[in-house]
Design goal:
By secondary structure, this protein is an alpha/beta fold. It is built from 7 helices and 9 strands, in the order H-E-E-H-E-H-E-H-E-H-E-E-H-E-E-H. Strands 4-3-5-6-7 form a 5-stranded parallel sheet. Helix 1 packs across helix 2. The longest helix is centred in the N-terminal third of the chain and has 17 residues.
Length: 227
Amino acid sequence: MAKSPYDTNLNRRAANYQPLTPLSLLERAAAVFPDHTAVIHGGHRATYATFYARARALASALARHGIARGDTVSAMLPNVPAMLEAHYGVPMTGAVLNALNTRLDAAAIAFMLDHAQAKAVIVDREFAHVIKAAVARSKVKPFIIDYDDPVFTGEGEQIGAIEYEQFLRGADPEFAWALPKNEWDAISLNYTSGTTGDPKGVVYHHRGAYLLALGNVLTCAMGKHPG
């Protein structure tokens, strides 16, 4: 088949192509609306500029610890600021975020940690007992980062090597993260509950997560700056 003129000198390059990724959404929000509130948790408020800087600091800290493209970072967290930061900070290193179901038991979590080959786990002290038991059963022994949610007043111990804020201390809030080499690169790993056997893993790629984010905004008729 003869080449079309549209097949000539129109190759993909930085000037005409950018991988679709949710990371660009936060980058733009921080650039265009730096002073708008992005995160509310109890009495805590954070702007998009702060949110972006903390996500980059998390990426910097993880990279400093050796986390890189293709690694898995698990998170046993409720809907707290660290969970939001992990959704951006983890993939900023090229790694894959594995958000664990906080309702599952130690046996199921241990299977997931092994199957995902988790290199690190960020865990809220509310769920420390489950992660402690899961790691005792798992073959992998991930680096554990404790998160002490100031809003949580219940019991829970710190089981990790370092606390989250301490882990971020000294990290670079202007970390030079890169877009994925391919928009089909994995961004997250999720699991079924395993009610009919071992949990099944499902991988999202950057492109799919980006398109789903836009689709949710349209479907929910989300207005500008929802409060």
